[in-house]
Each structure stands twice: as structure tokens, then as C-alpha cells.
Amino acid sequence: MHQMTLAEIARGLADKKFSSEELTKVLLARIAQLDPQLNSFISLTEDLALQQAKAADARRANGESGALLGAPIAHKDLFCTQGIRTSCGSKMLDNFKAPYDATVVAKLAAAGAVTLGKTNMDEFAMGSANESSYYGAVKNPWNLEHVPGGSSGGSAAAVAARLLPAATATDTGGSIRQPAAFTNLTGLKPTYGRVSRWGMIAYASSLDQGGPLARTAEDCAILLQGMAGFDANDSTSIDEPVPDYSASLNSSLQGLRIGVPKEYFSAGLDPRIAELIHNSVKELEKLGAVIKEISLPNMQHAIPAYYVIAPAEASSNLSRFDGVRFGHRCEDPKSLEDLYKRSRGEGFGAEVQRRIMVGAYALSAGYYDAYYLKAQKIRRLVKNDFMAAFNEVDIILGPTTPNPAWKLGAKNSDPVAAYLEDVYTITANLAGLPGLSMPAGFVDGLPVGVQLLAPYFQEGRLLNVAHQYQLNTDWHTRTPTGF
Ligand code: GLN
């Protein structure tokens, strides 16, 4: 039962082969048995799950239908869930029970999805390895000595290990696509503004975007359908109609123009990954796509720009955690300043503190022009590169990551080494574009992802290309041994 995709679950529920309650119990038992190896959950919500499953079964018995009605999912632990701990992977919010549901959580619940729990993540979504969580590192089900990627590592490990079919995640600089690549999943970062950020605890507000993590493009379409849409509570949410993402999955790829940027195949890319990416290009060519070499000349500047902008926004967003309003408060403060200093010093981990310091420095009066303003100018150049490329091609294709999942602890002493691994993912966030990662093969038994980028609001096109690719390849069906 645990092998089923969301699409298969929807069919099984509609055909009354099993109930949502039965399925939910099977998956909760599987989580209890297997998750101790992975640490992919911060909180389990068994009571809520069983209550939601029973309600979904009752709605189906009354004639209602819907792809998410009775479907088990989990939420990354930065989506606020009313009355349930919403920790953001931090000691700072270990005691925080959200007073309301995030829009994404409310929308999925209304569609009948069943919440099994809240998944582990890098603290405040800062990281690419899921090692900065206050609740401990998450292990990669493909090799327990390796990281699952981050920051949505808990969602990724849980779905890859077949503990559940799909989960929500967020992507500020790659945190949906990179863990998808590291765990053999399909993950979609939507266009900025497509999915409401209301109730999604902010890391870098101009880059953050929620999206689905699942095993197939077909399932990403189902989950995105439940997440996307205008929300008056989020001033950056876009008031555009949401297309039917499942309807375009079967469009032909005949004549589709795919651009492959020459800058992607530089020295930093593992040659074995380069070969797998070339194989995926050939596969899409067989399906009718036309391949063209393109150039993204400012790509090399994206990492330094991102690692100024994201910490700058984080330093501002995280100033609300001061020990006064909510979250961790130090024992016995001697003064207001002592309260601020010790609450924040005790509540935030090392990576979060590093980013707050970098961000505050970049925004300080004497350095603003040299760092923050310069980074914003680079951001525009990165966007302009994409706009020029999309005049020539419909989709941009390349690797999701330069290397496969590294060993736990391998990059802990050198944060910049981890930042460099984000080279292929962060440009889409800087430009606000949608991007998808899908399975493309294995290196040393570890999964490799291929990334597709599209113009604004063309999530349907990305899902279409990925679905056609998955109808003709079987990488996404491989299961990690032991799960
Ligand atoms: N690795 C990137 C960072 O640490 C991206 C994280 C994310 O997308 N949330 O900022």
C-alpha cells in the first residue's frame, strides 16, 4: 500500500479498494517503524490524521470526489499549523504552537488531504544538507551515511522512503529541487507569487516559495493544484487563474525548444552527472524536442549575490524573535538587552547566527551600496539573462546539483563549500522563475537530478515535460533498499 503514488491512491479511494483511514493507519505504522533510522519528522499528528481521514471517507461516501480527498501528506515544519508545534527546525520555536493555519495548510485540508505530521528541516530553512536542524540531521534513505539535501530534507527523505506519497516543501535557493535530486524525487518550485506565503515562516521573503515534493510529475501536479492560487493575505501573491495542471501532462513535446546553457558544464560539475544530463537530453530529443546551446553569462555572479540578499532579508525577518513576543526566552533576564541577547543567542543555532550577522553587516549604513545594492543589480542581470534565453527556447535544462549527496558532516566545517553546491538552483529564485528537478540516474548508488526551468507561470509546461520523460524512463520508480 505504501508504494502507491497520489494518483494511484486517488483511484483506489474512488474505486473503494481501501479507505483513507486504512491507508493512514498503514502509513503511521510504517513511520513508527522506519523513521527512527531517518529522523524525517519533527512532530507526528496521529489524532488529527485519523480525524481527517475519517472525515474524508465520510465526504466520499456522500458522493464527493477529488484527487486530494483522503490523500496522506505532511507539511514542512515552517508552515503554520493551528494548535500544533511549528518549530522551523529551531530551538527558538520549539515551544511555538501556531495560532492559525498557513494558507497552504488550510487549502490542502479543505481539499481533504490528511496531515500525518510536520517534517524536519534546516533551521529557518538555511542549509542544503538538513544538518542545521535543532532536532538533529536527517539521513538519506539511499545511503544512511549521506545527507538528504536541504532545507526540505525531512519531506524528501520521508517521501523517498515511501513513508508517505508526497509532502509540502519550500524553496528559497533550491530547497525543493536539491533534496528532490538527492533522494530521487520530483520537486517543483513554482513561480514567485503562485503559492501563498501567508503562514509560511519567512527566511528571505523575496525568494521564498512553497511547492510540492513527490515521486512523479503527475503527483506534483495534483499537490500543486491544491496549493496554488491568489491569497489576499499575501501582498506578493499573484491574482492569475490557476490552470488545470493535470490536463496538460499529456501534451506532445514535438518541436519543444530546449536550451542547454554552456556555462552549466564547467569544471565544478561531476563528469558522471554531466553524462546523465546528456542522456536525459537525448531522451527528450527522441520525444520530439529540439536542443539548442544557450548562454547565461551572469550565472557566475549568482552565488555571491544570493548569499548577500538572502541573509539580508533573513536578518530583518528574524529580528521578530526577540524573547518578548513568542519563542524561546532566556531564564532570569537581568535587563532588556540581556533578554534580547541571551534569548537570541540560546535560541538560534550557529548557521542562523552567521547569516544574521552577514545580513546585518550587508545592510549597515556604510556597506549598503557596496553589498546589498550591488547584489540587487546582479539579481537584475541574472533575470535579464533568462529573459533573453526564453526569447530563443521554451525550457532550460541542466543538472540540479554539481555533485550527488555528500556524506553527513562532510561540509560542516566549511559553510562556503556548501553554498557553492547551490550554483544551479539559486538563479531561478533570484529571477522568480519556476523550476523542477526530476530523477535522471545514479552515481555510486546515489540519485542524480535533472533541472528544468520555464518562463513565469509555466509550471504546467514543466510538469508536462517531466511527465513525458517519466513515461519513457524508469529512474523515478527506483526504490531505496530497506524501504
Ligand atoms: N541552500 C540555500 C540556503 O541555505 C537554499 C535554502 C533554501 O532554499 N531554503 O540558503
Automatic annotation (TrEMBL):
GO cellular component, as recorded: glutamyl-tRNA(Gln) amidotransferase complex
Gene Ontology MF terms in the entry: ATP binding; glutaminyl-tRNA synthase (glutamine-hydrolyzing) activity; transferase activity
Family note: Belongs to the amidase family. GatA subfamily.
Keywords recorded for this protein, A-Z: ATP-binding, Ligase, Nucleotide-binding, Protein biosynthesis, Transferase
Family annotation (SUPFAM superfamilies): Amidase signature (AS) enzymes
Name of the protein in question: Glutamyl-tRNA(Gln) amidotransferase subunit A
GO BP annotation list: translation
Occurrences of domain Amidase (ranges): 22-463
InterPro entries cross-referenced by the UniProt entry: Amidase (IPR000120), Amidase_CS (IPR020556), Amidase_dom (IPR023631), AS_sf (IPR036928), GatA (IPR004412)
EC number assigned by the record: 6.3.5.7
Active site: 76 (charge relay system), 151 (charge relay system), 175 (acyl-ester intermediate)
A Pfam family recorded for this sequence: Amidase
Catalytic reactions of this protein: L-glutamyl-tRNA(Gln) + L-glutamine + ATP + H2O = L-glutaminyl-tRNA(Gln) + L-glutamate + ADP + phosphate + H(+)
Description of how the protein assembles with itself and partners: Heterotrimer of A, B and C subunits.
PANTHER family cross-referenced by the UniProt entry: GLUTAMYL-TRNA(GLN) AMIDOTRANSFERASE SUBUNIT A, TRANSAMIDASE
Protein's job: Allows the formation of correctly charged Gln-tRNA(Gln) through the transamidation of misacylated Glu-tRNA(Gln) in organisms which lack glutaminyl-tRNA synthetase. The reaction takes place in the presence of glutamine and ATP through an activated gamma-phospho-Glu-tRNA(Gln).
